[in-house]
UniProtKB/TrEMBL annotation:
This is Tryptophan-rich sensory protein. The lineage of its organism: Bacteria, Pseudomonadati, Pseudomonadota, Alphaproteobacteria, Hyphomicrobiales. It comes from the Bacteria. The chain crosses the membrane at residues 7-25, 45-65, 77-95, 101-120, 127-150. It is a multi-pass membrane protein. InterPro entries: TspO/MBR-related_sf, TspO_MBR. Pfam families: TspO_MBR (PF03073). The keyword Nucleotidyltransferase does not apply. Keywords: Membrane, Transmembrane, Transmembrane helix.
Amino acid sequence: MNNKPLVYLAFLILVLGGGLLIGANNVPGDWYQSLAKPSFNPPNWLFAPVWSVLYVVIAVVGARTWLSLRRSMGMRLWYAQLVLNFAWSPIFFGLQDPTSALIVILCLLVAVGGFIAASWRQDRTAALLFLPYLAWVAFATALNGAIVTLN
């Protein structure tokens, strides 16, 4: 019996479900609206679709890595990035603490970059799939840093 579809489904439920649940419980509110934001701040409606697509990619990469390199450094870094990713919104929006969130997102940026580096030789496809995620996290890091600076 081939359990690949179940592994992919489990990762999709974990990542997309977890991300949507965290997002629904940490909605930008009046506090966020009152913050000074940089000129490159995208419209609020853009974040949910971008993160939804990225969560699907993160799930696919996690399933690929689980199926072929379960005990690798790449898998450990994949877990680390997920924990950091899921921690950011509750810290930024829930605790209203952009400075602590900046530390978390900097660690996330390192974990995503580390995953790409660790996976490059063993699963180039997984590493390449994480490049848009790395770009978005780098952008989000710059945005978080600008918000800290402006407020």
